[in-house]
Design goal:
With about 190 residues, the chain is mainly beta. The chain is about 10% helix and about 50% strand.
Length: about 190
């Protein structure tokens, strides 16, 4: 059972890619419409849409179902019967998009790290070496390492930094998730300790 769970986690992580939050177009208490006005990823056909966007999303804890997905537009309808505030809401798309915030008609992505901009090395790493993380810009970063059971084994706030070194000598051999976040971004990356 452990091998199947670990394999499933590895498969999920290696296939996980980050996409942008879709642009907000309009919302009512019961419907939300998104657009790709800046060509940010909404596909031009329903088949592509089905692959990229989930059938159901969570908006401020309420269930919304996909109502339509056509050229340049994506819509969801509230299925819970309970209204949302159309000027300020958070959408959990799950998967590669993650959580997106929409405030006063503006799209605020919480998953806008480009995987190619954050350098993490060496990976795999010996538990006798430091893991080095280089960030694309100087900022405040929250860094957490989770084991495969989801238990936090390292957590640290790093203020106004461009890079950090993480001592891994207390980590057992195995697979871990490195979670890096700022006020507006989240990145999850697998690391292997040998």
């Amino acid at each position: 059972m452990k091998k199947i769970t670990l394999f499933s986690l590895l498969l999920l992580l290696t296939s996980y890619s980050f996409a942008q939050c879709p642009n907000f177009v309009s919302a009512t208490a019961f419907n939300i419409t998104f657009d790709d006005g800046d060509n940010n990823g909404i596909p031009d056909s329903f088949n592509d849409c089905s692959a990229m966007f989930p059938q159901n999303i969570t908006v401020d804890g309420k269930n919304f179902g996909r109502g339509g997905c056509g050229p340049s537009q994506l819509s969801y309808s509230n299925q819970s019967g309970s209204a949302i505030d159309p000027t300020n809401f958070t959408v959990d798309f799950g998967g590669s998009i993650g959580v997106c915030a929409y405030v006063n008609g503006q799209t605020l992505s919480t998953t806008n790290f480009d995987l190619n901009q954050v350098e993490i090395f060496p990976n795999p790493i010996s538990n006798e070496a430091d893991l080095i993380v280089k960030f694309p810009k100087q900022d405040n970063y929250s860094v957490t390492i989770l084991n495969v059971l989801g238990k936090t084994v390292y957590s640290q706030q790093h203020l106004n930094v461009l890079d950090i070194n993480i001592n891994t000598n207390t980590l057992a051999v195995g697979l871990y998730i490195l979670k890096i976040s700022t006020d507006t971004s989240v990145l999850n990356k697998k690391i292997v300790v040998q």
